[in-house]
Amino acid sequence: MPKFLVKTSGFVLIDLHRGKRYVGAPQVHRMQAPQKGDTCGLYAFNPLRFRFGNQYLATNRDRHIELVFSTYRRAINKIDANKPICELLLEEIRDFLASDLKKITVADVKNYLLELEKNLAAFKKLSSDTVETQNQIQQYKEICQEFLDNDYEYDDFEEFLIQKANIDLIKLAQRTIASLSFITAFEPKEVLNNYVNESIKSVVNSRDNYGSMLRLTLDNPEFLAPIYHQAVLNLAASCFQLEGSDWDPTKPIEALMETLEEFGPQVIYTEPCVLFDSSNCKLEVESDTYKIYSAGKSIDEKEGCHSLLIAGAENCDGEPFVYLSDPNVPAPLKGPSPLYKIPYSELLMKIHNIYGVSLQEDADKIKGPFSFQAKKGNFDRLYDFVNGHQPYQPLDNPNKTRAMRPSII
């Protein structure tokens, strides 16, 4: 059973372990940094998994899995950082063509590529102070060549540049899935198809033709990229030996309290964002072990998706609340742990199941799972290890999980 900061008949609050400790270096207790970029899902999984570290060889199964998703996380941030390059390139090719009206054709890009090659040759004859400019020209050349290779059959360079980040995210997801295929026995297309099929099956008697509409989006990188990303996150959950929870958010808050007591924290996906911003929140409770914040009335709704951990639930005189830990706001190694309190009704408006379907989708029923959890007893082992109470104990082999069907572990 998890350790609790509060445990009464009407209030359950789990004691989440602080920081991180590697199996390969168990003597060192490290701070957990806030998430970097749009990688909240992977950061939200961290409190529910063992970390092995570089003392383990990459050939070790657990270390290989760890490295694959670490590489995926860093690559997402790199793709995000490269977006301004495409914006600059579009401006400069428009200047070169002396036009901002017509479509930028393959012939236009070929001519511009020749101009880039001439410019690069000229800069190479100058001093080393031009290295940064040379690097930028080289990036432009690579992007132009990728368009000319025409993998996605774009005939307008501007459209390609607008979609490039999504195209890169799709390719990254495919490489990530492929790099785990010797463990999972799944290829990228299988993982995607499984995710899409499970998403459609989770919507019972849709009144908005959910399945048909979802399949229509799969040819558009703008929609396919986030679908592939979510499929990769579900694959990560399975590889980290997490499982889909039986918790049903449409049930009373007591059902969530029972799940927390038995299995520990629940990783959830929200859209619009449930996002903890302590600078715009009201501090409600402060103790030696936790600080509880609630949203101010003036806080605007945040667009996009965000992953968090449910760490507590309360029935306060008939008014239910949930308590959340946000990967953006990690707890210090010592001192009170920051938690975010929201009404249960707000969570129900924003929570999605693990296949990206909102609980508010217009249908007879939206099936789960709506969260990931550690297998029963595994969170307790992890808590004791990270807090230095017990040495590392390998996790039990999990039961088949609904994160991926068929099970990959």
Please describe what this structure looks like.
The radius of gyration is 24 Å and the shape is globular. 42% of the residues lie in helices and 18% in strands. It has 2 domains: 1-23 and 37-49 and 242-390, no CATH class; 51-239, no CATH class. Helix 2 runs antiparallel to helix 6 (157-178), helix 6 packs parallel to helix 10 (221-239) and helix 8 (188-201) crosses helix 10. The strands form 4 sheets. Strands 1, 2, 7, 8, 9, 10, 11, 12 and 13 form a 9-stranded mixed beta sheet that branches. A two-stranded antiparallel ribbon has the order 3-4. It is of the alpha+beta class and 409 residues long.
Q: Quick summary of this structure?
A:
By secondary structure, the chain is of the alpha+beta class. The protein has helices at residues 40-45, 61-81, 83-97, 106-124, 131-149, 157-178, 181-184, 188-201, 210-216, 221-239, 253-263, 344-350, 378-386; strands at 4-7, 11-14, 20-22, 25-30, 203-206, 242-244, 266-270, 281-286, 290-295, 306-316, 319-325, 337-343, 351-352, 363-366, 372-374. Helix 2 (61-81) packs antiparallel against helix 6.
How far apart, in Å, are the first and last alpha carbons?
Answer: 24 Å
Can you summarize the main beta sheet? 9 strands, mixed
The chain-level mean pLDDT equals 91
Please provide the ordered H/E string of secondary-structure elements.
EEEEHHHHHHHHEHHEHEEEEEEHEEEH
The domain tally reads 2
Rg is 24 Å
> What percent of the residues sit in helical stretches (DSSP H or I)?
40-55%
Structural class: alpha+beta
Share of residues in strands = 15-25%
Number of helices: 13
Region (Disordered): 390-409
